[in-house]
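Exercise: predict the fold of this chain.
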Amino acid sequence: MHKNLSAFSKHQRTLRKMIRKSTALRELAERTGLPALVWQCNLIQYVSLWSHDYSGLVEEMLRASSRWKKKLYARHLAITIFEGTSDFAVLLGKPLRDHLVGFGLATRLEAERKTLHKEIVQFARSHGPFLKRIRNSVIGHRDHNAKTQIELIDSMKPAKMYRLCLALIRWSKKFYQTLLIPILQELDGRLARVSK
């Protein structure tokens, strides 16, 4: 368990660095009037914040001392994962493709974008109904029939949410390495040229 906690802590430190770096780039892009660069920075910030949230929630779930608290964190994870994967299925599609074309990065990064988009869409399709049921019944909204809530909470397995989070961390690492870091490097270069 402690090994898992340290992995989540390390992941969160990396995400905080990414948030700081992309925030600085975004501020520079906003000052220099470059809305396309602002959009790219926003995407980086969005995925970083989302990843930080779900990794923090799973870390707390692992630390929780009672079954009820573990399931409470698992329910919060369900809504966080559901909403994020729904958003990424959209953001990594045409909007990102159009921005990569506009930056002249489509040739270099289109295959990676397609792969990552396909993976997050498949994840959302595979797990979305389960996550949505939790979201709509016991966390984001509440089923008016308390018996339904209790049955769903009782049937929840925090270990399943943990496995989903591990899959998302693997996906987000791939996302950073194959797509966001090259985009950040390009942003750095363009902003350095513009700000001279």
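Check your answer against the key: Residues 48 and 70 are 24 Å apart (CA to CA).
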